[in-house]
Amino acid sequence: MIGVIATLRIQDGKTEEFEGVFTALAAQVRAAEPGNIAYQLCRSRTEPGTYKVLEIYADADALKAHGASDHFKAAGPALGGVLAGRPDVEYLDCV
Amino acid sequence: MIGVIATLRIQDGKTEEFEGVFTALAAQVRAAEPGNIAYQLCRSRTEPGTYKVLEIYADADALKAHGASDHFKAAGPALGGVLAGRPDVEYLDCV
């Protein structure tokens, strides 16, 4: 299995819009990706406007399928309009 | 729900012992804590000897129950013998 921690920083005043877009994406990920085990959006308690997504995939193919999915690609423009910069994505090997 | 990212640094030569202790603990957490939704040990790909645990709990009571559980307390001495320092624990609010 593969773990991912994606850190997303959102523009001032855009967090509500971001949460709407991302929770809709997360519902699609959970419903449509059999190789996805967890995809949980979380809000930082210490850094305003910063979110971390906790993700777990069955294997490298499942992670690849996530990035190639129509729903993930479709969310790109809306997310691009609210992100304050490029996401930081950390990949981990599950034990 | 509450998300947790726990970062654990392990002493040189102790990672195999750590993985054995921690995966046994994780199995107990998943089996015995109804309020725990995810508890996944992951190995850093970039920092040797560093692990991150991706955790999700139903609510604050579930997180409290985790910390107060017999299995969590019982793992303390074994983990203390292999950790290279205090864990860094980040708490997050799930969206």
Features:
homodimer; 95 residues; alpha+beta; Alpha-Beta Plaits; four-stranded antiparallel beta sheet; 3 helices; 40% helix
What's this entry about, in short?
With 95 residues, chain A is α+β, with helices and mostly antiparallel strands. The model of chain A has no long low-confidence stretch (mean pLDDT 97). Chain A has helices at residues 15-32, 60-68, 70-80, and strands at 2-9, 36-44, 50-57, 88-94.
Number of domains of chain A: 1
Q: Report the strand count of chain A.
A: 4
Number of H- or I-type helical stretches of chain A: 3
CATH topology of chain A: Alpha-Beta Plaits
Enumerate the strands of the largest sheet of chain A in spatial order, edge to edge or round the barrel: 2-3-1-4
Beta-strand content bin of chain A: 25-35%
Write down the CATH class of chain A.
Answer: Alpha Beta
The quaternary organization reads as homodimer
- Could you estimate the helical fraction of the residues of chain A in percent? 40-55%
CATH architecture of chain A: 2-Layer Sandwich
How much is the radius of gyration of chain A in Å? 13 Å
Mean pLDDT reading of chain A: 97
Largest binding interface between chains: A-B, 24 and 24 residues
Amino-to-carboxy terminus distance of chain A: 8 Å
Specify the biggest β-sheet of chain A: 4 strands, antiparallel
Q: Which blocks of ≥5 consecutive residues of chain A have pLDDT under 50?
A: none
* Category from helices, strands and their pairing of chain A: alpha+beta
Order of helices and strands of chain A: EHEEHHE
